[in-house]
Write a structure and sequence with these properties.
By secondary structure, the chain is an alpha/beta fold. The chain has one domain (3-145, 172-207): Rossmann fold. It has helices at residues 3-15, 19-39, 73-85, 122-132, 150-167, 175-181, and strands at 45-49, 65-70, 91-94, 107-113, 133-144, 187-193, 197-203. It has a 7-stranded mixed β-sheet, with helices on both faces. The chain is globular.
């Protein structure tokens, strides 16, 4: 892990103490509903990239083979508590999304929720997701991105350095563009809130360039 990646990891280690409190307004807005909807679509052998403090764990369907990773040890510790509290069987591992310790083509589905705002090299992380997902598998992402509305997008650009230093997350990532740059071709994008929060579905994983 290079110095930049390690700095981000340490930032999330510190943020783990108050992360759920800080995110509570967004959860009340609609995020919990979107999480529940995404979880209902999971099947087979599943990987969650960026489990964080484990906000999705309570909604994991029973009977699935789920592995969840995060590069912050202290965020992962919170997720382990949630797994025990909700009596959910999940394989929780500390791992960098940019360099996963899994063989290729081993997961039926991969999903993320608000993760690629903080992955240091999103193209590398997306490439790893493509590598570990089966050719006929599916990737589902709920991500917040930079608005393409001129004024709002500019505001997000101006505020981004402050938000990154305080919270660790970028608010002006163009994640859909990054997905295309990572070589994915068959992408379905649905706006969940304005043009900022999006549901992104990717299929025919290995048919991409």
């Amino acid at each position: 892990m290079d110095k930049h990646d390690d700095a981000i990891r340490k930032r999330y280690d510190r943020a783990s103490l108050f992360y759920d409190i800080m995110e509570a307004p967004m959860e009340m807005m609609a995020f919990e509903e979107w999480r529940i909807q995404l979880m209902s679509e999971l099947k087979g052998k599943v990987l969650e990239v960026g489990v964080g403090t484990g906000k999705n764990i309570a909604f994991y369907p029973d009977g699935l083979d789920i592995t969840a990773i995060d590069f912050s040890e202290k965020m992962l510790a919170k997720a382990k508590i949630k797994a025990m509290q909700n009596n959910k069987k999940v394989n929780l591992l500390q791992m960098d999304a940019q360099k996963m310790d899994f063989p290729g083509n081993c997961f039926d589905m991969v999903f993320t929720t608000c993760v690629f705002c903080s992955v240091p090299d999103p193209i590398k992380g997306l490439g790893e997701i493509r590598r570990v997902c089966k050719p006929d598998g599916k990737i589902i992402m709920i991500e917040h991105v930079r608005s393409e509305k001129a004024v709002l997008g500019l505001i997000m650009d101006v505020l981004n350095p402050l938000v990154v230093n305080m919270h660790g997350a970028n608010i002006n990532r163009r994640t859909v563009e990054s997905i295309r740059m990572a070589g994915f071709a068959e992408i379905k994008v649905t706006n969940l809130w304005s043009d900022i929060v999006k549901k992104i579905e990717i299929v025919n994983i290995k048919d991409s360039i």
